[in-house]
């Protein structure tokens, strides 16, 4: 059983559809990023996942219990299994840092002595041990978000949900908060589902990505897949077709080793496969794998040429065709 | 000023304070739960019951619509039932409280509504019950506003208690009418006014200090 299973979720406001047939699973210890433009339905999805909102149809199974239909009294208890981090922190102004972090424990009726111990641990974890007695208004944005994260972790949730957790922060602070979240995932093995509109955040934190558009999942995969797809979309000619016509050129994605890039690669390939190659774009290196993706246009396409390409590159894949005059 | 006048002023001030504080506390005791109920049962609230919210709202507004001096007279039978007499300081506390409860309820309602919905979400997402939302979010977060509202209510009660003096409630209003108006004793009249002004300033000042002390948000720039 997966930690979180979402099946055919639908949510609309009035006649307006905010989420349409959303399905995905999250395994224990995963880091799932959900990315989408403003109005794509990200917050609506996260509110459903956190039990603050109910979908009109579909199932949200957290540890086997369906949040979509659970009676309110049971849902209240199930919410304690989830930690939620907000874009605007949502710290209580009337409570000190320590008291904010202690709140989920008070709600779960954890005895006072245990509460103190846990709060001290958490403030240590997020690096705010010296600020326990301060009020949130006295902290910087990054510090506030650390309190928000400590609070979300307090009751030892099974799932951490982050709604644009870094969107109100500057780049350096964003970096630090993302590093903290990655640490928490690694050290505590905590499952993280986060939403963002920034590709960069996805690239840094996600193992798996869902792309949300107008309430639908339009793509899913690893950050590298999604990044590539995005960049390809940006550079591919608009008249790309999926079927070859007389005299059309093929657009080919070549994967080569970073080593190979040091030699005059295209010239060499041209000679070996007897076709004219034009480099359209070099995609960002996949550093861990030592590979680089090139998008090239190839005049004419014979099966033998493709075979030759495949023999000399790590991979070659035809993405589509463009008319010869373009 | 003679010793006698000072004594008169002192006794009247004590009576006024009795009336104002007693009815002020009753206003909170009755008005705060009423305000919480209004906020919770409003459409889109944590416990939406539109019929209850509308009914309560209508009752609150109806009481507030009646001018205090008329309420004072209207409530005489009720007051007699509750405290046995319609005259004197204790008796005045009844109509003062009845007027102050809906007054404070509406002021408190505004403060409660101003609490950031994100904070309510945060506590609900932690698995807080609706009662916990009231206890951990709505009341503590609106406390500075509630204190300011309470101060306004007390100041209004100072004025209203003087009016209650007109029907023999005792206190500063009573003194002003008996000595200042009926006997043309200007010294007493001016003394009463001076005490009222000082009283209101002290109440307002104390309220402001307390509200500021409790407000842990960014200090507002002073103009
Ligand atoms: N409470 C609501 N009532 C009515 N419509 C809503 C409500 N909440 C969301 N919507 C609508 O649902 C759609 C998705 O909104 P949502 O807030 O989930 O987008 P988002 O992806 O989080 O956008 P952003 O990046 O701007 O936060 C929008 O069209 C929005 O107008
Ligand atoms: Mg949003």
TrEMBL record, chain A:
Pfam families given in the database record: ABC_tran (PF00005)
Record GO cellular component, one term: plasma membrane
Matches recorded under InterPro entries: AAA+_ATPase, ABC_transporter-like_ATP-bd, ABC_transporter-like_CS, MetN_ABC_transporter-like, P-loop_NTPase
SUPFAM superfamilies (alphabetical): P-loop containing nucleoside triphosphate hydrolases
GO molecular function: ATP binding; ATP hydrolysis activity
UniProt KW keywords: Amino-acid transport, ATP-binding, Cell membrane, Membrane, Nucleotide-binding, Translocase, Transport
Family the UniProt entry places it in: Belongs to the ABC transporter superfamily.
Chain's role: Part of the ABC transporter FtsEX involved in cellular division. Important for assembly or stability of the septal ring.
Name of the protein: Cell division ATP-binding protein FtsE
From TrEMBL, chain B:
One Pfam entry name: BPD_transp_1
One GO cellular component, as annotated: plasma membrane
GO biological process entries: D-methionine transmembrane transport
Keyword Lyase included in the entry's annotation: no
Domain ABC transmembrane type-1 intervals: 13-205
Gene3D superfamilies: MetI-like (1.10.3720.10)
Compartments, as annotated in UniProt: Cell membrane
Keywords of the record: Cell membrane, Membrane, Transmembrane, Transmembrane helix, Transport
Keyword Glycoprotein: no
NCBIfam families from the UniProt entry: PRK10782.1 (NF008049)
Family to which this protein belongs: Belongs to the binding-protein-dependent transport system permease family. CysTW subfamily.
Name of this chain's protein: ABC transporter permease
Native species: Acetobacter syzygii
